[in-house]
Design goal:
32% of the residues lie in helices and 17% in strands. The chain contains 24 helices and 29 strands. The chain binds beta-D-glucopyranose (BGC).
Length: 795
């Protein structure tokens, strides 16, 4: 039978003999495996004298109106990301009222806008062109939470590196990423953009992304400015409802929310974005404490701060500003240098200067920070350097980039369950596979909700295409969509959802029954049932919060019908959040979480299900049993009445911290992720039973691959401080290593703990250690570890 290959598959088969194998070695020239230096490298210092002279001259020629123009960021019309756009942006560029633009990519389109700025304004200052390059520009990598599930910093950096290469050829020199908001509530749609619930992992990933986007030198034409967003606390929105209030203690703020942002400053991130939320009574966009006192004075940030989309205007509904003018005054004086879309700076700053409410000196400082970035990007030297049609043609969706996307995608999948070694699918035994589900052959869902400029129609490879490509004529694939992931709604709800453009169906829709019948007949003809179920991509992301975590539509019902056939069942989940998978956990043989895997997702799923690649992903976020457990995260406090589930006398456990109708434990813990092979851990060896506050402690474990395949394991290290001046979590991730093991191979994995690893914000908010007894844990998941103890002592 002749295989019909779609464009992406065709490109691969032509250049790689029909089957692209990706290995880390292939990408070593695309990333620096070692950490790169922060962007303020030495050549930048040499350039500084030249730059200062140039910018002093330029700023001295600028009128106040032209200066204020530099503080304005406008949105174009490509992939509009907010509720308001301004149609007059071209005229405003001509009028010198725009310093930067976003949602306006394309080498040619960028050139056209840049030409207006350079040739038709009095001073010819080039524009910065930005875009949300979140997990790829046109070659789309796994959704951010999936990238975090790789626990592989090289993979994360590679994704950002490729994205920067593609974007910078396509007219873009600034991305609004990484998002480093720490998240604990899967109802919030934006958990899909985060790196999960843990501060150690989130911080490492945020830095890897900054390094990938910015490289070690912003002046290279294939690097772009990164943005640390959203500063700060946005991930804690109450009830998981987007844009909602956050209220967080000082300790919690500094312990879990601030560290990724501080680390990005240290890594030289070029820009910061304010967040929408009200943080402890002050909207972050109007917070002088955050934007000036902490970010500038305490952390020494030298780039510029952009607001989120119309976030200054929102100070009015927040109840923090009387009107738009007052909002502009508050935000600018707080330290927000650039106004995204809201146009309040161009409308009000000149008057505010005249009234003495805003100082021109402060405007000069903000303008200078923005112009410095333009200089560092090389825009004054060549404003069109990011508009390189030939490079775009060569670099975008290149075979190397597609292979990189496949490499990262298969690393991002998490094997949640695998009873009876149902996976991998053995193609010498299996003659037919029923492939069922609304996500099995849906191109647009493969690339997730924030795939920026990613094409949803032709390039993404679906699981059905991936299966056909992998199994060819050897195995018959019986495909049926089978179910719908659209919300099932009442008539009234349908109206609301239609208004919002959200798809919904009625439970009595007769096409649902027909689809289900087709699925059952496909399954009857097959040796194994593979279901690709989950959420439509737009159920995650901004403004996409849910109150349920169950699989929407009639997917559950269809799975229940298929279960009656008594055949082996595999569930591949695609979604941007932890879902309630209780039924599947009890009834399905194997579950693989594949997030939204990107352009090469279908090939990568086939790689993993077939065993061509052994799964290595680990959960960056706890999967609750039910939405009622939320917020649930591994590094909780112990409470005064910790519940002991294994106490044989459960009567003693009644007045304990627990639920009547659910275990406390999650369905799948943070760090969980199985392999097709088996890793055995020895007991922990410590270099000593005490550690001095000035010393260090070596902690090691022998890990043996006792299973049937070579594979990678993420060895995780956690600690627990028993007593502190404030109470300490039951476990905290302090290190991890992703290590390759040949079949039968044993390795000693060693970590070195120092005082810095054990430091925390003490009761008086000072950063440091306190002598105490500690537990140290090493294992394969936060709930599956070996344990030892040591004492931290003064010396
Ligand atoms: C989002 C930001 C994004 C911006 C520009 C906002 O609505 O919160 O994350 O970068 O839009 O698209």
């Amino acid at each position: 039978m002749k295989k019909v290959l779609k464009p992406t598959l065709l490109a691969l088969s032509m250049t790689m003999g029909g089957y692209v194998m990706a290995s880390s070695a292939m990408f070593s020239d695309m990333i620096n495996v070692e950490r790169t230096a922060p962007v303020s490298a030495s050549h930048w210092q040499d350039d500084k004298v030249k730059m200062d002279a140039f910018l002093d001259g330029l700023i001295s020629k600028m009128t106040l109106q032209e200066k204020v123009g530099q503080l304005d960021l406008q949105s174009g019309f490509r992939n509009v990301t907010g509720p308001f756009v301004n149609e007059a942006y071209e005229q405003q560029i001509k009028d010198g009222q725009v310093g930067a633009i976003f949602n306006a990519y394309g080498a040619d389109f960028g050139r056209q806008l840049q030409r207006i700025a350079v040739e038709e304004t009095r001073l010819g200052i080039p524009l910065i062109v930005g875009h949300d390059i979140i997990h790829g520009h046109k070659t789309i990598f796994p959704q951010s939470i999936g990238e975090a599930a790789t626990w592989d910093l090289n993979a994360v950096k590679l994704s950002a590196r490729v994205a920067a290469k593609e974007a910078s050829a396509d007219g873009i020199m600034w991305t609004f990423a990484p998002m480093a908001d720490l998240v604990r509530d899967p109802r919030w749609g934006r958990v899909s953009e985060a790196a999960g619930e843990d501060v150690f992992l989130s911080t490492a990933i945020a830095v890897a992304r900054v390094e990938g986007f910015q490289g070690d030198d912003l002046s290279q034409d294939d690097t772009i400015m990164a943005t640390a967003k959203h500063f700060v606390g946005y991930g804690l929105s109450q009830g998981g409802r987007d844009y909602h209030t956050t209220d967080v203690s000082e300790h919690e703020l500094w312990t879990t929310q601030m560290p990724p942002f501080k680390a990005m400053v240290d890594a030289g991130v070029a820009t910061f974005m304010t967040s929408f939320n009200d943080l402890n009574g002050v909207p972050a966009t109007g917070s002088k404490r955050l934007l000036n006192d902490i970010l500038r004075d305490q952390w020494g940030f030298e780039g510029f701060v952009v607001t989120d989309y119309t976030a200054i205007n929102e100070l009015v509904p927040h109840g923090y500003a009387r009107d738009d003018k007052h909002a502009a005054e508050i935000a600018f004086n707080a330290g927000a240098d650039m106004d995204m879309v809201g146009q309040l700076y161009i409308n009000h700053l000149e008057d505010l200067v005249a009234e003495g409410k805003v100082s021109e000196d402060k405007i000069n400082t903000s303008v200078r920070q923005i112009l410095e970035m333009k200089w560092r990007l090389g825009l004054f030297e060549d404003p069109y350097r990011y508009n390189d049609e030939a490079r775009a043609e060569r670099d975008i969706l290149s075979n190397d980039n597609l292979a990189a996307a496949r490499h990262v995608a298969r690393k991002s999948f998490v094997l949640l369950k695998n009873d009876n070694q149902t996976l991998p699918l053995k193609d010498d035994e299996i003659k037919s596979i029923a492939l069922i589900g609304p996500l099995a052959d849906s191109k647009s869902d493969m690339i997730g909700n924030w795939a920026a400029a990613g094409d949803r129609k032709s390039h993404p490879v679906t699981v059905l295409e991936g299966f056909k490509h992998r199994f060819g004529d050897n195995v018959k694939i019986n495909y049926a969509k089978g179910a719908s992931y659209d919300y099932i709604t009442s008539k009234e709800d349908t109206k609301v959802r239609d208004g919002l453009g959200i798809s919904s169906i009625r439970a009595d829709d007769s096409s649902l029954k027909k689809d289900m019948k087709r699925a059952i007949s496909a399954a009857k003809k097959s040796d194994v049932i593979v279901m690709v179920m989950g959420e439509e991509q737009r159920m995650s992301g901004e403004a996409s919060s849910r109150v349920e975590l169950t699989l929407p539509g009639n997917q559950q019902q269809v799975m229940e019908e298929l279960k009656k056939l008594g055949k082996p069942m595999v569930l591949v989940v695609m979604s941007g959040r932890p879902n309630d998978l209780r039924w599947a956990d009890e009834n399905v043989d194997a579950i693989l979480h594949a997030w939204y895997p990107g352009t090469m997702g279908g090939i990568a799923v086939a790689d993993v299900l077939s065993g061509d690649y052994i799964p290595t992903g680990k959960l960056p976020m706890t999967f609750p049993r039910s939405v009622g457990q939320v917020p649930i995260y591994y590094n909780e406090k112990n409470t005064g009445r910790p519940y002991l589930a294994d106490n044989p006398n459960q009567r003693q456990e009644h007045y304990k911290s627990r639920y009547d109708d659910s275990p406390n434990t999650p369905l799948y813990a943070f760090g969980h992720g199985l392999s097709y092979t088996q890793f055995d851990y020895s007991e922990i060896k410590l270099s000593s039973e005490t550690m001095s506050v000035n010393g260090e402690l070596t902690v090691s474990v022998d890990v043996t691959n006792s299973g049937e395949f070579a594979g990678e394991e993420v060895v995780q290290l956690y600690t627990r401080q028993h007593v502190g001046s404030i109470t300490r979590p039951v476990k905290e991730l302090k290190g991890f290593q992703k290590v390759h093991f040949g079949k039968g191979e044993s390795k000693t994995i060693t970590f070195t703990l120092t005082a810095e690893d054990l430091a925390f914000y003490r009761a008086d908010m000072s950063w440091g250690v306190e002598p105490s007894q500690f537990d140290v844990f090493i294992g394969t998941a936060s709930d599956n570890v070996k344990q030892a103890s040591f004492e931290l002592v003064e010396k």
